Amino acid sequence: MIPVADDAESKTTDFERAWTAMILFDEHTWGAANPWDSALEGPSSGDRQWSRKALMAYEAFEMGERVLERELRSVSDELANGMADGVGCIVMVNSASYPVQGPIDVWIPYGPRIAEGVILRDGETKEAIPYVVVRKGLADDPESAEHSPLSVPGPRPRGFVARFVGPEVPGMGYRTLTLDPTGTTASTPERKVDTVLETPYYRIELDVQRGAIQSIYDKETACDLVNPESHFRFGEYVYDQYTMALGFNHLSIRMTGSATWLLGCRSRPEIVEVTRRTSTSVYEEVVLTWVAPWIHRASLTVRSYPALKRVDCRYRLNKLSVLDKEAIYLAFPFASDFRTAHYGSTGGTAGGDLATVPGSCDWMHVIQDWVAMGNDAVTAVWTPIEAPLIELGDIHVPYNPFEGILSAPEPRILFSYVLNNIWDTNFPAQQGGELEFHYGLTSYRGPYDGGHSHRLGAVVSNPIRAVWDPRPSTNFLGRFWDIQSEDHHIIAVAIHRHHWNRIMLRLQEVGNRAGSVQIRSSQGPIRAAWETNLVGDPIQTLVVDDDGVVLAMKPGGISTLMVESAQ
Q1: Which of 85, 161, 392, 397 is a good FRET partner for 44, with 20 to 30 A between their CA atoms?
Q2: Which residues, including other chains, have CB under 8 Å from residue 516's CB and lie 6 or more apart?
Q3: Percent residues over pLDDT 90 in the chain
Q4: Phi, psi of 151 (to 5 degrees)
């Protein structure tokens, strides 16, 4: 978001390597067909093909993290303006177009003046911010075993990870915290035994028999977001095995017949117990652990926040590898009086009464960041992180003609389709090991609003990023770009490849309403602006004045804006 001239070529190379690796991973077959075979070459070289393909995913992730951290450091370099003193600051960066507040994990090193007893303060208001030490020592320290959806990647020297809910960070902007070594705001976890989580926003009751959530009561709207009459508890684990022969390619598109014949067995959690209940000034947390067929051990961590209207769920499954055709779902039954779901898809919004492509798949959906459903009083927004496939109302056997299999379908139940080995081509025939999935849930007063739902969902999938810098900063709060609209979001920013003083911004309209958006830059006045196509070729010249530039957009549209700075 801040152009940095030095090392620009190296940064571009790293980004292009990550992007190329993602594209290569997504390539459909790579010539492999039978993943259960281990030939040296040809369609039956499944092991070799998958090892190469998986390598692309690892490279994309690692290079992406490298690019992200370097860009965070670039922002920090722009803001930190003092000599290193061993205490420094924490720079929080928000890449969304709207203000965001959320949980943050940040690594802080040990030093002569830094221990776990530092005070975190808002740089502008000087208010102390409570935090919890969730990881400390080296990476192989036994106390470093916990991971989170906001875990800090990569090798680190000795230090600790502080988790806190920071103050709100402006859209497309930053906020800095100071470190004071003269005291502590660290919270000591308190152990409890009950299975109820209660914050100013929610009362969450867990079902220990089923290993899931029984109720999420929204105190603001006096509504329970969960259907108590459902066949499933909220977040319940469901495992299906199917009855066809193994080791034959592409049966997934040739199997027909009764759905009840194709479903061999369905399993749910067994021997559930509460293994941890933690209460701190930053979050409340319960961990449920269970076993199930083909699962060594599984756990669900439910976390809520006293300062945040949000519930987080983390699943960790240690699964055996089996060749049997199988699928894993997580069930989320919302209140029965909620209306049809809307959801964010790639590049737009779908669901409800919005138009669909005739003949497209109607039993399974791919979502981008969020699903929203509710009534006139309340709307719930559910966000997955790693699992974009969902089914609504029923579980469908994944074989043509894809019949529903629940004895009584539930219109407002959502199933997150987290794992299957149905499709053979160039995917492992057996899936196992330790798997982790994360979900976020929030709600707001009133009926469904596309722009509001998009913002709440994107907060979970694209959280605030933070980095420690040894230098102090007096730049406590600011924005890089200012966009005067709640329905228009900046989804990408890039420096023009051939003109360093031209920046391309890609915008998306998420409220499904026609209108105009005003964009201003805090990096200096805008001298000229153009609406362009996706690759940056000008379509029309836009009027620029002291208030910035105005761009008209269609409902649900995506547009590209190129601006030229006066510097």
Answers
A1: 397
A2: 550, 551, 552, 553
A3: 46
A4: -65, 150
